[in-house]
Amino acid sequence: MGVEVHDYISVSEKLKSFGVSIQSGLAILPGNLATATTIEELRQNVESDTVRTLLSANKIPYVEIFSDEAQPPYFQQYGSEWFGPTLFLSASLLSQNPHILSVSLGFITNYLYDLFKSSKEGNASLDVIFQQVDGSCKKIHYNGPADGLSEVAEIVKNLKG
Q1: What is the DSSP string of 90-153?
Q2: What is the pTM assigned to this prediction?
Q3: pLDDT digits (tens, 9 = 90+) for 101-139
């Protein structure tokens, strides 16, 4: 199991450079946002739709950054691992709803438990981008067993202070 925390680009500034704005809230970002130089280069993991469905089914509010017509294309990674999307949340969202990330990760963990129940070697990979009060962002990358995803919520809580 591994968790890495790194500084990350300003999500709002990067999206603004593409003519897109982000509202405060939980959102799913393209996985290559930091490296894309044009909006046409943006790609999102195919599991983004799975997570959107989980959030909707469990009445967890999230914001769409792109319209249905402007959704970045999907990319698929193959292997015995589940490659999750990149989740974005702001410190202001956590102030209003401190449990939103841990609850969301709980639903994802339950989904993965069902997905991997026939396999003992199922790993999950997920990125969370946390925008701090000052607008700076941190990237928390998780790779390990599905039941370790709850560790990401604790890291974000500690980053929030």
Answers
A1: EHHHHHH-TTHHHHHHHHHHHHHHHHHTT-S--EEEEEEEEE-TTS-EEEEEEEEEGGGTHHHH
A2: 0.92
A3: 999 999 999 999 988 886 667 799 999 999 999 999 999
